[in-house]
Amino acid sequence: MSQLNQGVTLFLSLLVEAAPFLLLGVIFSSVLAVFVDERKLIQWMPKHPALAALSGSLFGCLFPVCECGNVPVARRLLMQGAPPALAIGFLLAAPTVNPIVFWATWVAFREQPAMVFWRVGLTVLIAVVIGWVFSVQRDVRPILQPMVARYLPSPPPRPAARDDFDLLSGGTYLLQSGGSALKLDMPIAAAAAVAAPPQSWSLRLRTLLEMMFQEFRELGAVLVIGSAIAATVQVAIPREWILELGQGPVTSIVAMMTLAWVVSICSTVDSFFALSFASVFTSGSLLAFLVFGPMIDLKNISLLMTTFRSRAVVYLFLLAAQLTFVSTLVVNLYTNW
Amino acid sequence: MAPKRFFLPKSLPWPVVLDILALLLWGLMILRYWVTGLMAVLLHPDYHWLAITAGWLLLGMAIWRAIALVRLRQTVPTEHIALLPRQWSLAILLAVAVFGLIYVPRPFTSDTALARGIAEPAGLTRSQPQRFVRNTPPEERSIIDWIRTLNVYPEPDAYADQPVNVVGFVIHPPNWPNDYLMVARFVLTCCAADAYPVGLPVKLSGDRSTYPSDSWIQVIGTMTTETLDQQRRLTIAATTLETVEEPSNPYEF
What we know:
heterodimer; A: 337 residues; mainly alpha; 2 domains; two-stranded antiparallel ribbon; 17 helices; 2 strands; B: 253 residues; alpha/beta; CATH 2.40.50; 21% strand; elongated
């Protein structure tokens, strides 16, 4: 009974704590979809995969969303034709590389300010590398959920593809006043992006509201499932099993990465959580917690599955885990910090 | 004006109504935790404003959507990319909101503390020396203040005979003799998900069964050193021990 109570309290506390950040992400993502023509933004972005991934990583400074909120934005970027490197860079780095998280980590580790710079630096590095790796896949559609892939233009080998797309693909269309065609069986997200410019402000506001509802419904339900799993695992696995691993340079990193994955705590507040382990865990392992947790955890795997096929999620997970492990091990073994 | 194709049939658009209901209930659930003070059980006080703002926003969105529906009787077609079918998402959100509106979250108990492992001095406490105030008189230190003090200088004998006055809940560690109990608190850094217990041993003059597990006590006494579990530990020799009400905020920070 006490276990059940504990599990439910954990579950509700994760929900209530994550709800504001989820809402913030949903609002940012919907505003982005209705009011910002990302295709213009994307056109300004560098084409080289590494530079695109780097710009994607730094997008977080414009859209300060945590890992509950960045998936809808990344999905939107992909649907608007962003290069995969850019979207992946954003997906992995945005929860960490943004002003709110920077500030929170600074406050938490005031005694170890280097932690902030290591955290941000390693996150950008890993996000750029993974973004670059994913850019090798020229046609990104096979790794996306079919519902998302439907709205992507064909890959670059046909340079005119994007211009031809609206005319040469099948479906039902309405001719817009500007001569552009609105595809009727598009989802509201894509339809809003195509139809946004000629709309009145009141209609745009109502589209915004509609989208926020839709995304909150979908991501909220997934957050509920993720929080329920995280709470169950926290209650079921004795925490000291995880903690016993915490001393060696290798086991501490593995333990903290596992903990980050299980606890699924929001990136805006995870530095406070990590701080509670500061006295027994190696600095490298705390860094691993802070770098790896916001990229992939139990909660946001289910969110990622709304956009990527499971194969791509597995690749993301393995790459992020390996790169975090290797880089923080180097920190543990070769720095005195 | 919206193009005609956006008009729905005249009947009530139930999916939209349920959407509004889900957001309304979520907003109310969060605001209920705030109004009833239960939010203290779930979150660190620093983050209450965030959750409260979210609650008001959800409520506002629901009301805005309801007004739009009543005034304009129209909606934008919604097809969406989803892992879960719309009905499932709605059902999950509604179920959790209703549950959250009824359920009273309880702070963690001594069972949880024993399962999670109680932080030893020099153990799992936040190392935040800038918050350590050297001049705090010993009798004003809370349990976490004592543990932080011990982290800085772990020799128990250094605190011998200092006055103690702390409030916490009772834990009966299974390996300890019957005239010892632990007075403990959970420490929050962000939310209940990262709560960790800290505690101090208390030496009683009688048997600990007078003070059942999870009851709240105020312990007044002096510090001494005892050997428990083959470890020398800073222990409170209790002179006065009273049962008290559970504080409105059961955690320390």
